[in-house]
Design brief:
8 helices, 6-stranded antiparallel β-sheet, alpha+beta, Rossmann fold, 16 strands, 382 residues, 6-stranded mixed β-sheet
């Protein structure tokens, strides 16, 4: 899979960009704040219908000045895979999103998501294991939607029912029969989401261990732990649990938490309170690991995702690499690029200091980015 052409209109600081990309390696260079990351976010938007730095689509629309914004924002991409082409078109106008596949409007994201798979690397990821649980949930959900797009609809329904329950818990008179209905739905939807997240980590774990050993440090004994909202710790390398068992836990725990939830007017049990983390020699990474080891784990997880998509789903994702040279030393950068060189993946990378990148070959196209405009260059600056 690769993006052949892309047109970006009124996205962040990009008024208009129309680029034909190289099938392998594309490099965007320029100073910070010029629009390199905005271009990657536009591609991410074309894949996931959301940005990676905001959950509000309106924030993505280009602003003419401090008080006025553009009327319309759009990203169109032409994708080629196995000698077939498909055109994805996303338009955001008057606070409404329109997504099209070959000019046919698509109503459900699940029917749209499988066309463009992207794996994003950004500097913020290196602090993931010390970040908030919500940040880690977003990280794993992004992987889940990439590998299993149908899970998006389950997430949407779960969040919808959860909001309805929250509103009812805050009402003057709580109807417990109505809470029974909400909890039955949340048990099925939330149980499925918790199981799918854990099952994803279980599938990725062998690839993750391989990446840690090959590319970083064979002496590192790293485990992944998934922590449920009711306090159970599950280890993908050893624990086996079925979806039915997870749903049964939800039913039991929601029932036990009923009185407390009514008292505090909040839902205490559910996938929205799950977490996951890594452990080093039996201790949580955030309390024992070095910054370099934190970076290694996050990068190994991303590489495991790439491996899984290619080997198990026969899908080479588009890689969006946002200034990773600022967070990884030259040795790890070289290992990372050597790893990627074994796969026929398309890479779109940004760098404010390209002279420090350990790249010796296979640079397809280079663009210099300045104030949201893109100029193709023949060579890297000396």
């Amino acid at each position: 899979m690769h993006i052949h052409e892309i047109e970006v209109v009124n996205f962040r600081n990009i008024q208009l960009a129309n680029l034909t990309l190289d099938t392998h390696f594309n490099l965007l260079i320029g100073n910070n704040g010029e629009g390199k990351s905005n271009f990657l976010e536009a591609i991410f938007f074309a894949a996931f219908l959301k940005g990676f730095r905001t959950n509000k689509r309106v924030d993505l629309i280009r602003k003419h000045d401090k008080s006025t914004t553009s009327d319309l924002m759009s990203v169109d991409v032409k994708i080629t895979q196995q000698n077939a082409s498909v055109c994805l078109s996303t338009t955001y106008k008057n606070r409404k999103l329109y997504a099209r596949v070959d000019n046919i409007i698509v109503e459900k994201f699940a029917d749209y998501a499988s066309y463009l798979r992207c794996v994003l690397f950004q500097p913020e990821d290196v602090g993931l294991l010390r970040a908030s649980p919500a940040t880690r949930r977003s990280f794993i959900d992004r992987m889940l939607f990439n590998i299993r797009p149908l899970s998006v609809e389950n997430m949407r329904l779960y969040q919808q029912i959860l909001k309805q329950k929250h509103r009812h818990l805050k009402s003057e008179k709580v109807d417990e029969m109505l809470l029974d209905i909400y909890d039955e739905q949340l048990s099925k939807l939330g149980g499925k989401l918790t199981f799918e997240r854990y099952n994803l980590l279980k599938k990725l774990y062998p690839y993750f261990v391989e990446m840690i050993a090959k590319l970083f440090d064979k002496s590192l004994r790293v485990e992944i732990v998934y922590q449920t909202s009711w306090g159970q710790s599950l280890y993908p390398n050893s624990d086996v649990i079925t979806e039915e068992e997870v749903i049964a836990h939800y039913v039991k725990q929601l029932s036990k938490a009923r009185h407390r939830e009514i008292m505090i007017q909040q839902t205490k049990i559910g996938a929205q309170r799950d977490d996951w983390n890594a452990m080093l020699n039996g201790y949580l990474f955030k309390s024992t690991a070095s910054q370099g080891q934190n970076r290694a784990v996050v990068l190994a997880l991303k590489m495991a995702e790439i491996n899984y998509l290619i080997e198990r789903q026969k899908c080479a994702p588009v890689l969006l690499l946002d200034d990773i040279s600022s967070e990884f030393d030259v040795k790890r950068q070289q290992r990372f690029f050597d790893f990627l060189d074994h796969f026929e993946t398309q890479m779109i990378m940004t760098s404010a200091a390209p002279q420090h990148l350990p790249i010796t070959k296979n640079i397809g196209k280079i663009w210099h980015v300045f104030q949201g405009s893109f100029e193709e260059r023949e060579n890297l600056p000396s």
